[in-house]
Amino acid sequence: MDIQKKLNVLIVEDSLASYKAIVSVLQNFGFSIFSERAEWKSEFEQRINDETWDIVISDFYLPDFDGRYVISRVKEINPELPVILVTEFLPEEAASEFLNLGAAEFLPKSSIIKLPFVVNRELEAYRLKQSQKKAWDMLVHGEELLTRSQKISHLGHFEVIFPEKNTLWSLELYRILGFDFAENPLMEKVWALLDESEQDHIKVVWSDLLRDNHSKEMIVTLNTKSGRKKVNLWLEAEKFEGSRFRIFGTIHDISDLSELEHSIQLNEQLFKGIFNNSSQAIFLLDLQGHVIRMNRNAVISFEREETDVQGLELIRSIFSNSDEESKKKLTYGMKLALKNQSFEVFVSYNLLDGREKYFDCDFYSLTDTSGKILYIVLEAKDITEKIVLERAYAQSQKLEALGTFAGGIAHDFNNLLTPMLAYVSFLNSEWSKGTTNEAIQKSLPAIEGISKSLDRAKNLIQQILTYSKIDNSISKQLDLRENLLQVLKEVRTVSSNQITLFTDLGNEPAYVNADPIQIFQILSNLYENSVFALQDIPYPKITISLSKVLYEKSELLHVGFMKNTEYWKLGFADNGEGIPTEIIQKIFDPFFTTKGGKGTGLGLPIIYGIMVKMGGTILVNSSIGKGTEFDLYFPAWKAML
């Protein structure tokens, strides 16, 4: 058993049935459970103090106390220990209150199926915090030791970033040079302390560094306010992308050489190693929330250069495009960190190109030995792939459940329709003989209307049955391009001739492994959807394209759960009115339709289910007033077998 799946859980619950249900759903997910149940307040107090728990799951309404007390007591004993409320009859505003008090999550008992995902997320975050706390303790200790060591050994360092010439001096360098700490750091001020001959030499060395990536070490003399000092000057140039580079250097006062030089270098490397090699994105902030440093993982995850945001306020720069709710959470986390309290928050983040990411963020403060807060730290874990997978899994489960339910009802209803259609047919046959009977003549239109309604009902039932049997397909290798041409030939004969059709299908066969009937369903449904969207457009246009794409060079890279390396991308684009943002997330939900009585709401859910079953996916992009494009990705086969 994976140690990450072992779980010590305290379940505060007065219902034995609910307790067993919680244990069962966690075990079914793969957790190895050690659990105890606390029903009364005295039992809870004993167990919360006696055991080392990974997580606490609690009902809200308990015999002689409530969930509010559970949250406050747990946070008092162990502020980092996650508490999940699983209850019913709790108003939404009350749930928000308890989340602000420190509860990790609130779930209705009717949604207990989501509990394993929440527990897995919180358990991972809790264990990560424990390991990161140890790392940060080492980091703070290493930085403190580095500062003290520099002071003892009289070693100062500086950095200059080009082309901006941004310059940084360490505190010890100010002391060595004899400058006040308020002095603006400029390397020209350092060179002015050199003897004239050494000034000429340093200019040559500095010019060489600006041209090449190399290091240089020399012994020079500085004429400081406190007297002449012999120092070891070490310089190193480091080039970045484009024309950007930096020069890093140290000035070691060797007038009274110390033996601490080796330990200084060791601790400096320790500081850099922990910070830059962390698996999390880390932002080091000042007490006003301005970005001081960001590690390598932060640059990669947030796709922002450190020099672009250094000195700027975190929320107004990095998270400027995030939603208002995320900004409020981040602001609240910053305030708690200033009170020396840790805070965890889930936020969304919009990249500059419009893509959305999700991060699990932790705020906490770094203090000196006296407890004074020096910095605020934001650690962010990229959980985008996990969120995408959870959503895909939830959609899949919903489709499967609805398919099974709808299939059963449709089958029984179809059995009822069969005799009704037979009776109507019988009436038509019998009553057509009495053409002279006036009463019969008057009722014939009604019989015809009933017959048409029954036909429509039968067609609807057939679609529901098709939806519920998405998995019952017979796949074979076929040419998607050839099938598309055949479908277009058939549907164009019944569609409006006013629609202009543009196709860019290439000449290469597009081999995929699929059910031909389902391929016809997909292509015809998409075409008819586009035709419907264009019925009121003055110059309707449909553009259909087919091309092969690589996974790592397409938007699939951000979907997160695709397995193939090559896909056939089929694009259906129209110049209709577009889909409003508030409903675009619902278009793949079964029975959701914007066509009124003309649609069943099963077309797109059927397409989604078929595509996922094939190992592909369907993505949608829509702009109001410009149109909608559906992109379907089919796993590609190189050749027919």
Automatic annotation (TrEMBL):
GO terms for molecular function: ATP binding; phosphorelay sensor kinase activity. The keyword ATP-binding applies. GO terms for biological process: regulation of DNA-templated transcription. Residues 8-124 form the Response regulatory domain. It catalyses: ATP + protein L-histidine = ADP + protein N-phospho-L-histidine. Residues 408-638 form the Histidine kinase domain. Gene3D superfamilies: 1.10.287.130, 3.40.50.2300, Histidine kinase-like ATPase, C-terminal domain, PAS domain. Residues 341-395 form the PAC domain. The modification 4-aspartylphosphate is found at D59. Coiled coil: none annotated. CDD domains: REC (cd00156). Residues 267-341 form the PAS domain. The keyword Kinase applies. Its EC number is 2.7.13.3. Keywords: ATP-binding, Kinase, Nucleotide-binding, Phosphoprotein, Transferase, Two-component regulatory system. This is histidine kinase. It comes from Leptospira bourretii. The lineage of its organism: Bacteria, Pseudomonadati, Spirochaetota, Spirochaetia, Leptospirales.
